[in-house]
């Protein structure tokens, strides 16, 4: 088997460095925001009503 080379683009590395500079409070606020969005999406239902033109 051939080893798969795993590398990151320079843009991805810069994004990771910026994220590491965040404070614990900023990380917590982002996590809670994402959690709330996830909870909303889990509760969401798609309802389709047929369009009736007269």
Question: Which SSEs are present, and which pair or pack?
Answer:
Layout: H1 10-20, H2 24-43
Structural overview:
This protein is mostly helical. Helices cover 57% and strands 0% of the residues. It contains two helices and no strands. It has helices at 10-20, 24-43. The longest helix is centred in the middle third of the chain and has 20 residues, at 24-43. The protein is elongated, with a radius of gyration of 21 Å. The model is unreliable at 1-5 (pLDDT under 50).
Shape: elongated
Sheet with the most strands, sense and barrel status: none
Helix content: 55-70%
N-to-C span: 65 Å
Helical run tally = 2
By secondary-structure content and strand pairing, the structural class works out as mainly alpha
Order of helices and strands: HH
Mean pLDDT: 83
Radius of gyration: 21 Å
Question: Strand percentage, roughly?
Answer: under 5%
Total strands: the figure is 0
Low-confidence stretches are 1-5
Describe this structure in a few short sentences.
This protein has 54 residues and is mainly alpha-helical. It has helices at 10-20, 24-43. Mean pLDDT is 83; it is low at 1-5.
Could you name the key traits of this structure?
2 helices; elongated; 54 residues; single chain; mainly alpha; disordered N terminus; 0% strand
């Amino acid at each position: 088997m051939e080893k798969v080379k795993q590398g990151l683009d320079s843009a991805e590395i810069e994004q990771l460095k910026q994220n590491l500079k965040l404070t614990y409070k900023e990380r917590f606020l982002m996590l809670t925001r994402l959690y709330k969005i996830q909870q909303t999406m889990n509760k969401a239902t798609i309802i389709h009503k047929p369009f009736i033109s007269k």
